[in-house]
Amino acid sequence: MKTFKMERLFVIILLILGGIIVSVPFIWMISSSFKPESEVLQIPPTLIPENPTLENYANLFESMNFGVYLRNTLVIVLFSFVGLFFNAMAGYGFAKYQFKGREKIFYIVLATMMIPAQVTMIPVYLILNEMGLTNTMTGIVLPGLAAAFSIFLFRQFMTTIPTDLIEAARLDGAGEFYIFFRLIVPIAKPIFAVQGILTFIGAWNSFLWPLIIANDESLYTLSVGLSLLQGQYANNFGLQMAGAAFMVVPIIIIFSFFQKYIVEGFTMSGIK
């Protein structure tokens, strides 16, 4: 018993030390974002800013147009959540509707998960170019409205919903859209929470596709703006730390609050 307690204490101490070591770069990034340029390069370095300032964050919006990048990123996030409902509808259709070729179509959807997104970017770009949607916000958000992995997760979850419940609602005169939004969506809250988090992270970090499809800087996202920041202000480390913190902190906050839903949703979706 005593040996077991010692082993447990050792593991706890080891995990705490590991957590501290992993957290140091993040803490340093946050700390440096509030330092003036002279203090960032100070030797010996300081973990807590001696003269804290918001100048770096102000310069992001004044010199780098981060306000425009933030607006574009939020637009992408908004439309990604619209696409989330489309994916949910598709998953619900595959799970609860019987139609010719259902399994074959679903297997095709699954097969697209094995194709790297980088492979399909050129064909998608050419299609959007023919439609006149390059260098537009529509062209940026349109390909992200459907995601095979999201459809798969929704389908796996919705197969666990009793069909008798849906049939009972139909017998009571409920329409299909009413059933989906008033019955299915409340039941599927765990998987919606999971996909909502993953969708937000993916849209917030969108970089390669906006960079390819957009030539106008007014359509760039925060990730693209951060890469421009690293190129134009390579020697301004405080400004770079502020840009990185502005990108990372919202994701850390959201993930910290909702990480339990990710585990719960994956478990309930049949992914072990």
Automatic annotation (TrEMBL):
Highest taxon in the source lineage: Bacteria
Compartment(s): Cell membrane
Residue ranges of the TM segments: 9-30, 74-94, 106-128, 140-158, 237-258
Keyword check for DNA repair: no
ABC transmembrane type-1 domain mapped to chain residues: 69-258
Keywords: Cell membrane, Membrane, Transmembrane, Transmembrane helix, Transport
GO biological process annotation, one example: transmembrane transport
InterPro entries: MetI-like, MetI-like_sf
Pfam families in the cross-refs: BPD_transp_1
GO cellular component, one term: plasma membrane
Bilayer topology annotation: Multi-pass membrane protein
Family the UniProt entry places it in: Belongs to the binding-protein-dependent transport system permease family.
Name this protein carries in UniProt: Sugar ABC transporter permease
